[in-house]
Fold this sequence. Notes:
It is a single chain. By secondary structure, the chain is mainly beta. The protein is 5% helix and 40% strand. The protein starts with a strand and ends with a helix.
Amino acid sequence: QTISFSPIPDKSVGDFDFSPSAVASSGLPVTFSSSNNLIAEVQGNAPNQTIKIRSAGTATITASQAGDSSYNAASPMTQTLTVGYYNLQQDSLPGLKLWLDANNVNGDSTADSIADGTPIVQWNDRSSSTNHAGQATSSARPTYSANQVNGMGLVSFTAAQGFNITSSNELVTVFIVLEQASNQNAETKPLGSNIFATTAAGKFGMRRQGSAWMDSGISSHSTALITMQLYPGNYALYVNGVSKGTGTDPVAPTSATKVGNDFAGDIAELIAYNSALSDGVRHKIEGYLAHKWGL
């Protein structure tokens, strides 16, 4: 007997348990084993074994069939399983409405080659919405800051610089990796809506104009990942994955029309969805951003 063992697609931390595909020519059940259970652990018994992803790295998965009274043992077959951290794609999760990545300002499949200090005319949206952020006025264009974090660039704003985006009230869950400039201690609205994201005391926070603050107590002058849920009756703020407040304000925010707006500082990445996300989905995106930007 022989074993036919299909290649295993690359996996990411956080993926569901899966069943590899291997078939013995005898029809007898195939048994799997892993060279590293800290990365990929085989669970259960043949023919109903699954593989649980535990951490990033590589593991060799071996498919075996020991034979019986009619068949000799088959020669074992192996496949390499590569596990990476979660890597967001345009179609990874439904509802992606805006995705601006400072490591891919052009939004294409090649690395950027932008000189430090270059004014950015357009920051391309990597989502299928193609809601590119642009600035026609040369004096109001943010600039590119090269090789800032893990060799990746950032988009830098003064309070007088920003991008325009198509008016949208569909941004319900927003993730932003940003750092406020050290010379700005002000309430700012980086999306141009009526949602504030920084306080006058130089802290990350969130409030709809006219409502009470969710003050995180965390300095806005260090790079952090801010997650804002902007849903009537169900507002929430997270900083670096930790809940910093919820609210039951029944009023919806106004449309997002800007990126930057009155905010001064650096933005690394902005991802927005048109619905409130479950904790599991939120954790995946926060994990992707935290690993990528060294948070």
